[in-house]
Design brief:
The protein has seven helices and six strands. Strands 4-3-2-1-5-6 form a six-stranded mixed beta sheet, sandwiched between helices. The chain is an alpha/beta fold.
């Protein structure tokens, strides 16, 4: 089974701090789609999460999730992570775009809950796998390619846009890109 997932958060991870540090970002939306090896959906989830803190306005402008929305519609972080872990336990392969970020975010929440982090044997990062395919020049490192955004990869593969910065839409786009990349031998 393959688990595709994405998170939206209250901000960026501070790599200089421990996962358990209170200033680390919180999950405000988590989505996951569990499929068989050919992409047939077996189970999915998309949850707005109440982090119990104010969501910075500049972050809300990116993903559209406000503090008011999370308080009205959100589940507790612990509930969201437990639900994710149920799907995670069924998967042989974990797939995301910029998977390191999303794994760290889940591990931050697990640390807050006093639990061990995810132990992942097999991962596939559509961002890293597609870097040499898209060949987008990196302005900061001449001669190197930058990691493509999910929207750039999706546009390249399918010549169409999607509603980015929504965890479920990002997860669906990632799933679509994954199977196209595999079809192309990546």
């Amino acid at each position: 089974m393959i688990l595709f997932f994405d998170t939206e958060t209250t901000g960026m991870i501070n790599k200089n701090l421990s996962f358990a540090d209170k200033s680390q970002p919180h999950i405000v939306e988590i989505a996951a789609i569990l499929t068989n090896d050919i992409g047939d959906e077996r189970c999915s989830m998309d949850l707005i999460v109440d982090p119990g803190i104010e969501i910075p306005e500049k972050v809300s402008q990116i993903h559209g999730i406000t503090t008011e929305m999370t308080r009205k519609y959100g589940v507790y972080e612990q509930q969201a992570v437990y639900m994710f872990m149920l799907l995670f336990s069924k998967a042989d392969l974990l797939v995301a775009h910029n998977i390191d970020f999303d794994i760290r975010i889940v591990n931050i929440q697990l640390a807050r809950m006093g639990m061990n982090g995810l132990h992942v044997d097999r991962i596939y990062d559509t961002m890293k796998e597609a870097t040499d395919l898209l060949k987008i020049p990196n302005p900061n490192y001449p001669g190197k390619y930058k990691w493509p955004k999910l929207s750039e990869l999706h546009k390249y593969l399918f010549n169409e846009d999607f509603k980015a910065h929504n965890a479920l839409e990002d997860t669906k786009a990632c799933k679509r890109c994954f199977f196209e990349l595999k079809k192309r031998g990546l």
